[in-house]
Design a protein that fits this description.
Two copies of one chain form a homodimer. Chain A is of the alpha+beta class. The first copy, chain A, folds into two domains: 246 residues, Vanillyl-alcohol Oxidase, Chain A, domain 3 (3-Layer(aba) Sandwich); 252 residues, 2-Layer Sandwich (Uridine Diphospho-n-acetylenolpyruvylglucosamine Reductase, domain 3), CATH 3.30.465.10. Chain A is built from 15 helices and 18 strands. In chain A, the strands form five sheets. In chain A, strands 5-6-10-8-9 form a five-stranded antiparallel beta sheet. In chain A, helix 3 runs antiparallel to helix 13 and helix 8 runs antiparallel to helix 10. The first copy, chain A, is globular and about 70 Å long. The two termini of chain A are 34 Å apart. At the A-B interface, strand 9, helix 7, strand 11, helix 10 and strand 18 of A face strand 9, helix 7, strand 11, helix 10 and strand 18 of B. Chains A, B: This is Putative FAD-linked oxidase.
Amino acid sequence: MSSRSWWGWGTDENALSPAETDALVNRVAALIPDHDFTDHPPPAPQSLPVPPPRISVPATLSAVFSDDVRDRLSHARGKAFRDVVRNLHGDISHVPDLVARPRTERDVIDILDFCSAEALACIPYGGGSSVVGGVEPRFDGPAVTLDLGRLDRVVEIDDVTRSARIQAGALGPHIEDQLRPAGLTLRHFPQSFEFSSLGGWLATRAGGHFATLYTHIDDLTESIRAITPAGVSESRRLPSSGAGPSPDRLLLGSEGTLGVITEAWMRLQDRPRFGTTVSVGFDDYHDAVRATRTVAQSGLYPSNCRLLDPAEAFINAGAESPGGVLILAFESADHPVGPWIDRAVEIATDHAGHVLSQRDRGERDNTGNHASAAWRSAFIRMPYQRDALARRSMIVETFETACTWDHFDALHIAVTAVATDTVQRICGAGVVTCRFTHVYPDGPASYYSIYAPGRWGSTVAQWDEIKSAVSEAISNNHGTITHHHAVGRDHRSWYDTERPDLFAAALTAAKHVLDPAGILNPGVLVG
Amino acid sequence: MSSRSWWGWGTDENALSPAETDALVNRVAALIPDHDFTDHPPPAPQSLPVPPPRISVPATLSAVFSDDVRDRLSHARGKAFRDVVRNLHGDISHVPDLVARPRTERDVIDILDFCSAEALACIPYGGGSSVVGGVEPRFDGPAVTLDLGRLDRVVEIDDVTRSARIQAGALGPHIEDQLRPAGLTLRHFPQSFEFSSLGGWLATRAGGHFATLYTHIDDLTESIRAITPAGVSESRRLPSSGAGPSPDRLLLGSEGTLGVITEAWMRLQDRPRFGTTVSVGFDDYHDAVRATRTVAQSGLYPSNCRLLDPAEAFINAGAESPGGVLILAFESADHPVGPWIDRAVEIATDHAGHVLSQRDRGERDNTGNHASAAWRSAFIRMPYQRDALARRSMIVETFETACTWDHFDALHIAVTAVATDTVQRICGAGVVTCRFTHVYPDGPASYYSIYAPGRWGSTVAQWDEIKSAVSEAISNNHGTITHHHAVGRDHRSWYDTERPDLFAAALTAAKHVLDPAGILNPGVLVG
């Protein structure tokens, strides 16, 4: 834990090496030769004038609270571009007064009771990977950040049902490590996998590994246990039920506003034994979209069905394809997937696609140009690259949405135009790319990346202007303000437009019951 | 509409013919020779002393209200066994005072405003096929039944996304009729299909055609529009979203307590072109369950995966198989399903199953003994058979649940033992059968049927005693009180045990916001 970066992504030792950084900067500099790539390293946390905590902790709870300055700084924000840059600037607004690390559910109850009694804001915190301001105490008044990192065990595995009871603070790799001996996997691999937690996934309705079918964490959930200020809530473990509105679905996406999720029974899978990946190139992006839609509606349910637009394919997979690249993959623990991939590829080629490369699991890729393998490697390293570029005044950030297929063309054109125009106006240059992270029979989740040269000292404001413009375009074109990044504080105004007002009123009433003192993550979702 | 039975299932003209009735009675009499099969036909509705309405309707609303006695009687109950028998007895307790049939959403608003102002209970009513007391005004005081049958149109079809905006009062066949010209289908075929409505399916989280994957109506829902006493709520059409808790999931399963669902955007499918069905017999039921579980966890996702226990297979499919029969089917609009069914059958035979018969779509079945075809035909006619037997003092009813696989063996043994013992004690004879209606990777939905000789005048009380005993056994063995029949009034006490108390408190608070006067379906779910 000590090597976790307080200001940026991941761990200090996994940050880009000097050689990797040089190579990255040289690649970007070739595209944007006039940019000032001066490095702005992070300040020493101890040098920052962080005010002392405004909270006195009773002696009975002192063992679970930390007032360490680095600890508090590292919990002050998530890991969005604007979080990292503010850290680099030594911006110390909204640092939590204390960090609480419960060892048991009893500790969680005691901490919530203390916060309720003292009217202290309390922010549940898992891996801290929010990119929407979800864990930032962006308000006046004292704040306690409740870090669930100590509750990190897989408590129980049921290998008949294939499910496990897992504590909410467990990070992705630690969950998989504990499931591996049983031959099972949760197989939930968001980009944040290494540094995000089960509880965070549940609270934010995270999107996972699979491009189709059971992929949102919602669908992997058998039951949830949560501690609310009003008491403990635990649903019955069930594969499915029709008994009233789903209790779990109220907590899924509640973003720490209704209670602290402490554990959940999660649906698992056997570890896959068979797999095939094919990359298909297109000359026309419209053909590529139609091919992707047809695959999404075919009932084949590929594990991967990721359409990279031409810029995305070039930047992150080194593939030159004027209409983009569709990465199709199937995997199974039960059966060879040949008939599945064959039909999916047939659909793609029926829509004027041409196979770029194919790889079967276990076979080495010796072609040297396998688009999907290159893409996956880049995927894992992206946040570290982002940080290296953020230090050098580049604006590197993403946003995402989902819409029904009938609205996609118009949404995509509008969003891309607004993003390109705004980037051009504000930064003078820049690139906007798009990929589908997930596809449903009735629509894609499109994910946009922006790379633009900023001005040191202004990159957060520059990004915020871009973000505001594209969010308007999404909202005006039938998109959701978030498919899997959550609402947090950054998406709040567009969320308020998107959700029905009466649902907000109902949710507010539910919150008053579960959190009567209104201490949980104030400003998020309601209130 | 005029031919709809006021007392039993479906229409008068589709009831069993005299010859069919004789054949059915003879079959049952062969098993239970001592039973008194005297027919007790329904009374004439006009002969029943139904009290006059206690409600005065303003002239502006008179066009949408009916006080016709037959109309009121036919809306007094659902279509459970206990409903039908009480109708046969001329039991006129809890007949709604008026039936309202809105022609437009404006009418719905006006009716709710009238009920709120006058503090009149209002029961939303779709097809009236509830089997859990969900539409019965089982309380003192006046009641308005709000029948949505006039709102029955498919308003809009989006064939790119493959979804349609459908009014909530449309019954199953009318929905399919309107979708067929576009080559699309909702493909939601509960047993009640002919006489249940989209709004009813949504309000009760109905279970559909498919045994796996997208089958609960929840998963087919893109957005919902509802009129609540507090106003109109409409969610954005989206394939998926991570923006806060799902607004739709609060209305799904709300059973008319939060608002009146008036229309929804529903996900459609292309009409299937390929299909194969295989029946697999087993000598040992434990092998059959393990085979079914393995198929459910294989990632093959059959459209049918229905395990009939030996009694179910014999009674409804004429198949003698000491360990039961597993019916496996795949269907697709996109591709031949050979590799899928082949692997599923391989799994079944690996678990000591033996293929009984196989049928490809379009091929005639000339073997004369195809178990699944016989079963499907019986499925559609079952409620009519139930009514013919109910008139003859037989107790014919079903109950259902779902649980995780680890609990299934114990639940099944306990439920079967309790059901058999109670039936034996109360009726002296009887049969209990089981089938899986749906299977999930983490558990089956098991569905039980009971056939027992009752005493005329006591069959409702006899059934209620059986039902209470089996519900206790389900609840004590980690089952849900309902997988797809809903809670209604009959399951309320077990529902109260099952759902978290804090969720009930949150739901109650939400209801106070949406239905401040507490008029909507009082006694259901909360309050």
